[in-house]
Amino acid sequence: MFKRPRGTRDFLPDEMEKRRYVEGVIRRVFEGYGYQEVQTPTFEHLELITTKSGEEIKEHLYHFKDKGGRDLALRPELTAPAMRLYISEYQQKPKPRKIFYIGNCFRYERPQSGRYREFWQAGLELIGSSYPEADAEVIAVAVDVLEALGLKDYSLHVGHIGVLRRILDEAGVGEEDQNRVMGAIDKGEGEALEHLLDTLGLGARERELMAGLLEMEGERDTIEKARELLEGREGPLRELDSLEEVVEKLGSFGVTDYVIDLGMARGLDYYTGTVFEIYAPKLGAEKQICGGGAYSLVEVLGGKKAPTCGFAFGFDRLILALEMDKFKFNEVKKDRYLVVSTTEGLLDEAIRISRSLRERRKIPCQIDPMRRRLGKALSYADAEGFSHVVILGEEEYKKGKIIIKELETGRQSLMDIREVEGFES
Ligand code: HAM
User: Fold this and answer.
1) Per-block mean pLDDT, blocks of 10 residues, the chain (425 long)
2) CATH level 2 (architecture), domain 334-422
3) 76 CB less than 6 Å from ligand 1?
4) How far apart are the C-alpha atoms of 408 and 390, rounded to whole Å?
5) Model-level pTM?
6) How far is the CA of 314 from the centre of ligand 1 (A)?
């Protein structure tokens, strides 16, 4: 017996039905805002992935050399591939460019509930605008997806990574070291962070500002409190102003329920501005169902500098969150017909009728290729959740009729074959 590789899953039909349903809602909401779907390869050149994504990603990559000696990696996320695609296909086209994707990603992580080695992301990228309404729209789309799905228990945290970065800039900390600081903050590694700030030689005042910001989490007046803390520091204050503008626009998009979180630092290194995360608290340690923000990647990958903002849902975690919220995925039971002939002589007619039901009447319909007798076919149909069994009996057939049995009620009715075949409808 072979086992699945660690951290991967099989999805059985019930699970797939839920996943396709959620996917459908996501697509509808994304498309409603004008985002267009793209698909990129499952593996990419290693360098695309390691450029500017940071240690967080590098440590967790599946990478390999192919037979031609090229260094490749299974994609751990879709932002870098999406930016590669943007540079080669869309750079000369009008902006904004709005793209979305739903696809599998791979990270070599320690598997646990909500954390897998193969998982799915559903995300989008808005390229070309640095106005606050662009960032606000991106956040609003994510919230709209959750509202459209009816997820009840979630919280949106909005921050701005530029505020922390400008303090570090002013303290003379270079970008690489800043990324390490952000990594430690993101992972909640307090001691490592203290140690790092010691080695970077941060002065007492900067330490105080950093510590103060990391604690700042609350309602909209948090921005005002941060402004007091940062008095006289022009760089960080400007970033705070831009966060305030985004928050203001969020209101126009109808998003009013959020936590301002100035201690938020994302794991990936490319973020530069507004950042946000959405948590489903019931998921415990892996409660982050969505993450994103404004970032800078196009020029690092060889394109012309362009402002970008986006997010990705952890699709699997979204499903888990809905399940924990007791979400009803299958309220509408779909019709499924099984066509059974009571004699072998009517088998070809059963095949023809099943074709008519599928093609003319658009009903999902199949024959029983196991050639079960009627009694067994009925129990099979019941056990497999068919809604109806179409029975071809010799007597009725001679009169040009078939029997349609509704399994839930047991009700039987006769139907004209010509009608089934669509000649009289
Ligand atoms: P990320 O926060 O690394 O951001 O991943 C996005 C989401 O993917 C997370 O919030 C989480 O729900 C889910 N996720 C991550 N790792 C796993 C895993 N091992 N198992 C299950 N789910 C996981 C990004 O990847 C960015 N590319 C998002 C983005 C798009 N930023 C701008 N544009």
Assistant:
1) 97 94 97 98 96 79 97 96 98 97 97 97 98 98 97 97 94 91 90 90 89 94 96 95 98 97 91 97 96 97 97 98 88 86 95 94 94 96 96 95 96 92 58
2) 3-Layer(aba) Sandwich (3.40)
3) no
4) 14
5) 0.92
6) 6
